[in-house]
Design goal:
Layout: H1 17-29, H2 38-45, H3 52-79, H4 89-96, H5 103-126, H6 136-143, H7 150-156
Helix pairs in contact: 1-2, 1-3, 3-5, 3-6, 5-7
């Protein structure tokens, strides 16, 4: 489905779990050079050695991504069968049927567009190699909290928390 990585992003992430992932990245992936998703893949490949807080953050991120995907799943099946996923094709197909898709899917697409406008540049700058759709981008952005733009920080921490 539309690799909508956002979601109920207004829902706060697990408290201070981003710090746990940062500590785990330093502990397990210090020899891994950042960029192109290498640190993310390193963290994921060391799942059994991750702290509970970091595992919780990665699970939370994946759940958020899945919720948006489910919002548009029936619409994608109804209007976009045969459209290959990737490169924004499915999103474009659903947008072309905006008058016909469900209100849940419209909300999901609006949330994605909001997220993309607020965090798209940060995603490109900090998480370019992290695949969209499994929550990896959300986890990457949350763990890069101090380097995010103010607009992207406001997505995850609306009150500056």
């Amino acid at each position: 489905m539309v690799t909508l990585l956002v979601a109920a992003l207004a829902v706060a992430s697990p408290s201070r779990a981003e710090d746990a992932c940062l500590a785990d990245a330093k502990r397990l992936c210090s020899a891994t050079s950042p960029g192109d998703g290498r640190v993310y893949y390193c963290i994921r490949s060391n799942w059994n050695q991750l702290s509970q807080g970091c595992q919780d953050l990665l699970n939370w991120s994946q759940q958020r991504a899945t919720e948006i995907t489910l919002d548009c799943q029936a619409d994608a099946f109804a209007y976009c069968q045969g459209v290959p996923a990737g490169a924004g094709r499915l999103f474009a197909c659903l947008a072309g049927h905006r008058d016909q898709i469900s209100s849940e899917c419209k909300k999901g697409m609006a949330a994605f567009e909001w997220f993309k406008s607020a965090c798209g540049a940060d995603r490109d700058r900090l998480c370019s190699g992290v695949p969209a759709g499994d929550g990896g981008v959300i986890a990457c952005l949350v763990t890069a909290r101090q380097r995010l733009s103010p607009s992207c920080q406001a997505v995850f921490w609306p009150q500056g928390g």
